[in-house]
Write a structure and sequence with these properties.
By secondary structure, the protein is mostly helical. It has 2 domains: 2-325, Clc chloride channel (Orthogonal Bundle), CATH 1.10.3080.10; 344-472, Roll (CBS-domain). The chain is 57% helix and 6% strand. A 3-stranded mixed β-sheet has the order 5-6-7. It has a two-stranded antiparallel ribbon with strand order 1-2. The termini are far apart.
Length: 484
């Protein structure tokens, strides 16, 4: 529940846990949208759009990045794609949430960029050596993201495998994170002060680490390296043990430190460059690689640092990091959605009636859940249309709902658990139109009806793909060869 998530996340972060607010804020926004969608009885496709818009609102407000927050919510569900159908709602939601935060600010919240302004010193140079440097940061950031993901899931899997109470696991994770914090206080909490210090710095001949001013090059470099490694492990212990928090803010911290290390080495070697640019590129590159969000990471970091003139270096860094990191991601639920390798144009010449599945197993609204459940055990389908005596579609019941209700109240009537909002399509509609609806709404099946809304069949994505494959297997007719 959103209120519980907010309280648990506040305790985790404010007690020093190495995590960010974006995960809980995004989940709270998405959870609130999901509850609202349930009250309004929205269709699944509309509910999905509303959930993404809710997450975008959270990201846009908490990072003061309305455009980047919207793009991040659109990119996060996939490793190599974004949710095209929710672009406008996400932009509206994210911008509205940002404006609410700006117009009615909390004492510590204002319209200034979250990580300070890099615009004063961050003036990138566009020549081959500097462009190569930005791509080098991206390459290193991609490798860092791979290592981060491996450590993160190794520690998470270790905690998951331990047979002990959840409270004991989170306590051990907190103790481990606190141990790092005793030596390096900078790894605790959000780490915004460290990020802001690096963004604003013009040189690093002296740097403040854990309240101590460090001036010697060797000690400065050692402090950067220690913070870098400690943040990776502390974050993994905090979240991997069950703490509530996000990985975006730690990724930004790690990226800033990586950019700082590269800057220190180049500075010692006598090269001239804008230190803020390297830090901002490092932030965006690690974030892009760790979360598989190359577009939104570049845009978001320009908003968070107020330095839109670093957008080109950011794009070079984020794209390189994204490519180098491959399929590694900190979001286990992310899926890969690749482009369709088939020629779908063949569906234009066929109707839904040609490719649909028929006959269809149906339920009646006055049936008990027990009878419907027994039928589902025999047939094993994912969903069952509910029709009246004239076979007009009233709604749909999913197998999961039958299973859950059967275990609690088997005498419940089917009409009380059916979903009345269903995706319908006419049997004479072109099959390619059905595919576009499915793809745009992110659904896998539609109920096929005639002009009177009577059930005639069921159309699934598998039916459409099978029709394409069958067409591709047809022998190609020989060309018309003119007589010689």
């Amino acid at each position: 529940m959103p209120p519980v998530k907010a309280i648990v996340s506040a305790i985790t972060i404010n007690s020093g846990g190495s995590a960010g607010p974006e995960g809980p804020v995004g989940e709270i926004g998405a959870g609130t949208a999901s509850i609202l969608g349930g009250w309004l009885k929205l269709k699944r496709s509309d509910l999905r759009t509303l959930v993404i818009a809710g997450a975008a609102a959270g990201f846009g407000a908490i990072f003061k990045a309305p455009l980047g927050g919207a793009l991040f919510a659109l990119e996060t569900p996939y490793k190599n794609d974004l949710e095209h159908g929710a672009v406008i709602p996400a932009l509206i939601s994210s911008t509205t949430a940002y404006l609410v935060f700006v117009l009615f600010p909390l004492p510590w919240f204002n319209a200034a960029p979250l990580l300070g302004s890099a615009s004063g010193s961050a003036v990138p140079t566009y020549d081959l050596p500097h462009l190569a440097l930005y791509m080098l940061i991206g390459l290193l950031a991609g490798l860092v993201a791979i290592a981060f993901a491996k450590v993160f899931f190794w520690i998470s899997d270790a905690f998951s495998g331990w047979k002990m109470p959840f409270a004991v696991k989170t306590t051990l994770g907190g103790l481990a994170c606190g141990g790092f914090g005793v030596v390096l206080p900078g790894v605790l909490g959000l780490g915004y002060a460290w990020d802001q210090q690096l963004v604003a710095a013009t040189n690093w001949q002296q740097i403040q680490v854990g309240g101590q001013v460090v001036t010697a090059f060797q000690w400065v470099l050692l402090a950067f390296a220690a913070l870098f490694l400690a943040k990776v492990v502390a974050t993994s212990f905090t979240i991997g043990s069950g703490g509530s928090g996000g990985v975006m803010t730690p990724s930004i911290f790690i990226g800033a430190t990586l950019g700082g290390i590269i800057g220190l080495v180049l500075q010692a070697a006598g090269f001239s460059f804008s230190s803020s640019v390297l830090v901002v590129v490092g932030m965006g590159a690690v974030l892009a690689a760790a979360t598989k969000t190359p577009i939104s990471s570049a845009v978001m970091l320009t908003e968070m640092t107020g330095g839109f003139n670093v957008l080109i270096p950011l794009i070079l860094g984020t794209v390189m990091a994204y490519a180098v990191s491959g399929d590694y991601t900190l979001y286990k639920a992310q899926i890969t959605r690749k482009s369709m390798p088939m020629d779908l144009s063949v569906l234009a010449s066929r109707t839904v009636r040609d490719v649909m599945s028929s006959p269809v197993i149906t339920l009646q609204p006055e049936m008990t859940v027990k009878d419907a459940y027994d039928l589902s055990i025999l047939k094993g389908h994912y969903s069952y249309p509910v029709v009246d005596a004239e076979r007009k579609v009233l709604g749909i019941v999913y197998r999961r709902a039958l299973q859950q209700t059967h275990s609690k109240a088997p005498r419940t009537l089917v009409k009380s658990i059916m979903e009345s909002h269903v995706e319908l399509i006419n049997d004479d509609a072109p099959a390619n139109e059905a595919f576009e609806v499915m793809n745009g709404s992110q659904i896998t099946r539609m109920i096929v009806v005639d002009d009177e809304k009577r059930l005639v069949g069921m159309l699934t994505r598998i039916d459409l793909l099978r029709a394409v494959e069958e067409t591709e297997r047809l022998p190609v007719p020989p060309p018309n060869v003119p007589p010689t």
